[in-house]
């Protein structure tokens, strides 16, 4: 079959077949996301009840068996006027004869699975790459997981319990930790919805940074940098910006002090150290990196995604030896359990005569931006340190916190973010299953349940930076050219956009949609004079 020939889409066909066979108890949820009148006016509905406990209990695995009595009860109760009888014994619903279409969590075939189903499953894997690059990109029709997850969140917000039951049942049938981006998004989304509905804060989620072995975590991180520009691109621009700032300093013999508020876990800095050796005049007499470690809360509802590594991992401890081999005098200071709001010149040991450069990447969106406005207050703290430059990189998306919209609005924004991550990692890993990919995706999926995901769009971030006394600085030619050259190593669906002549921001986009932005800031001289 040539590339030009039209191939069947096993994922879409699978979904449509399942829905057609299940029409006896599934509503037209794709046409009518919710009907608030179905439940809000019912005398038996208690808005404060823990419907997650009554609906579904995923437990340790997302893809609960179809024979689970709770899942069966959810489906059966749906056909009985939506009433819940938590303690009643309800028989399993009669499923379509081809109910084994549900994807397995493992790639190993089930010996009980029919031969025709196994062929269908293999065909789906064979075509996964094409699905990721075409109908699973920005074509909403191909992104069926969102068409189930978002209506479910809308139904939860509206209090439409019957619709919630329907959609959780379908999601439970289709979710899988393996397969294409849609199946994996359904898997992570189902976990998040179930967690939201449950009164218990404890849940067994996917593998994340904190739950991995240090060596495997390091390998996963390096592999991800190799195949995806998600973090490699901002880090490349940040390093080039540091060199740009140093080149503008008249005194080439000043010590360099970098305040590292990021998620690179140290892998960003060897490249910079090597570049410093090629700088005219050689490296600074002393390079000091102060690492502001993320506060570990031991709770994925609070931890910022990508910020907490496993216990025992400390890549920074290897950097001095690496620097010594290149005749660089490197000093590493690590600040543990210091909330960002409490930073000051004394804590970071900022000394007179140092060239202070602040590198803040994907951590500041965790600060509250409503009441109290911790975000603006922290930017004022950065301004008070009088740095020679601030490199700010952040997710370029709207906020998903409860103060900026209801649960359905926030959840849909988080799902959109995770879709881009999963879709891009499918391409990065060539559609192959990988433990390294799984841990990166598990960490990204924390955004679905994280209460601290208070992102803002690029424009709002720039407005905040200007309001506290910073002015945008254009990235130099070396930074732009280096970023473009780096991006050529990755999938062609990635692109760089120099988006704002006013503030000089550079954006990273995936399939025509924004992912993140990088910006460079200096002190506004006009503010200092006033």
From TrEMBL:
Family: Belongs to the GRAS family.
Protein name: Transcription factor GRAS
Motif VHIID per UniProt: ranges: 256-260
Entry annotated with the keyword Transcription: yes
Keywords, ordered alphabetically: Transcription, Transcription regulation
Keyword Transmembrane carried by entry: no
Basic residues bias: start-end ranges: 118-128
Organism of provenance: Corchorus olitorius
